[in-house]
Each structure stands twice: as structure tokens, then as C-alpha cells.
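Query form — protein Dirigent protein

QUESTION: What is the three-dimensional structure of this chain?
INPUT:
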Amino acid sequence: MSLIFALYLTVMVVTANSDSNYYGTTKPVHLKEEKVTRLHFYLHDILSGRNPSAVRIAHANLTGGADSAVGFGSLFAMDDPLTVGPGKDSKEIGNGRGMYVSGSKDIRKFTIVMYADLAFTTGKFNGSSISVFSRNPVAEEAGEREIGIVGGRGKFRMARGFVNIKTHQIDMKTGDAVLRYDATVYHY
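ANSWER: The C-alpha cells for Dirigent protein are given below.
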């Protein structure tokens, strides 16, 4: 009887130890040498018309008068085309999908906070993307601002870096904008 009890305790201890670990450890992966890729493209954020690429999905009831296309506290979903040039008929190379929220009460200091996955659908980086999550002070005087790259997938796995954005064209009445993106991407 005591032999059976000892065997039972041994099985219970082994079972308890194997179920108590919720993680595993592995040896670090030896990464390839880090690369730097510079990308240049345009993002078309269109709020107006019959086929907008960004739409308001939520807004605060107490903010953003009727004269503002992007009132304070408004949340937008985006599926913006990425193109080689600034023209609406320029070759499309991908899309920017994500969300942004208007984070400024004063339209003269218009700032958004954005998360977007900038995916490439053609060429050398087809199937790859960079992810940005950052404050974007759209109305900055210098006209050029920087947002952070926080990740990526495909050829940009484990990406980090930054994107310099310059407004190529903006309509403050409709909110429509064409933006030049110059990205510096560090990846493996």
C-alpha cells in the first residue's frame, strides 16, 4: 500500500510541475545583420465624396462644431491608398489601414494620434508592412513632422525607425489630404 501511495505522489508531483509552467525558454535566435531601408511614397487620406478612404466611426457629442471635418475627439478608420506619386492616378503600391483620433481642440493646432499598418502590395516589399503608432502634429509650422515605426511584418519583421511626413496638399474644409511619407526603416 505504501508503495502505491509513493508512486501516486511521484506522479502527482511530476504532473503538477509540468502544468505549472506557462512559458518556455529557448536560446536566442542569431539575427542577421541589421538593414536600413528608405521608402518614399504618398498616402491619400480622403474624407469627402462618395468613396472616402477614411470615415468617422465615433465622435464626442460636445465637441467639434459643424464647421470642422475632423472635430476634437473624433475617431476615424482608414483604408488609404499608398502611391508612388502625389497624383490620384499615380501607381498604387499598397494601403495604410488603421485608426486615428483627433487630439486637439484648436483646428490651428490640429494633431492626431494614429495607429496604422502601411502594407505594400506590389514590388520588392509585396506582403510586407511597417506599423506606426505616434502623435502626428498635422498643423506644425515647419510642415514636416516625424512619427515612430514600432514594428512590421514580412521583410520588415522587427522593424523600428521613423517616418518624416510632409503635407503635399490639404483641404481644411473637407479634411482631404495627400501626404508625402519618407520612411527610414531599420530591420533584419
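ADDITIONAL NOTE: The first helix runs from residue 2 to 19.
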